[in-house]
Amino acid sequence: LDDIPHTGVTVYADSTSMIPGIAISTLSAEKLSISIKKGVTQLYLKTNCKMLGLRPAPNVIGEIRGSVFPDEIILVGGHLDSWDIGQGAHDDGAGCMQSIEVLRLLISIGYQPQRTIRCVLFSNEENGLVGGKSYATISNEKKEFHLAAIEADAGGFTPRGFSFEADTSVLKSYYKQVSRWLPILESYGLYFEIGGSGADISPLKAQKGLLIGLRPDGQRYFDFHHTAGDTIENVHKRELELGAAAMASLVFLIDKYGLK
Ligand SMILES: [Zn+2]
Hints:
260 residues; alpha/beta; seven-stranded mixed beta sheet; 33% helix
């Protein structure tokens, strides 16, 4: 319960009954509801929003080419777009910066990856996943194989662990392999679980690689998510860095030992 509106996507069951979706803070909604019920208030609402059509919005991609298995891609990524009432610092500036940071960390220790480590900053996640879907379509056309993909899109908070998913034909063997590394990451307070991964990487599931979601502490995420409060001063530098370090560690292990 707070005084700031939380925006979000509006989904219509059918296009013949589309009515405007308007965000109001939960506290204001309670007050308004009581006031209307009492007959004290009448509400007249006029909106002037409209769809202006589609515009080009590129995904931004950078990679370190693999020295031994360049055709096996390990992706790290987040999404560039955000709800424009805030800065999108947690959702998902944090994930973008952590993904860039994974590559920077590997370069800074002089590590030459065996596999291609690719950072993808997806466009237009919030308005229908266009960047993620397009990326997978082009990747499939190029007959690429993503051995693993890690998405960071749950806020720049202290990392708690990773969630894994994959096509059912391969999930068990992948999970068995990564579970061998759990004792290493557990000592940094990280857990592993089978579950979802991330919206932008989900269309890559058909390539039968391992899809992974970074799972930070979620207790305060929805204080900021899709609000005017999602700004850079609400991201804690140390917590953000720990998430990037956790991702880099898992990328390193997958690259060095593979998933077989
Ligand atoms: Zn997001």
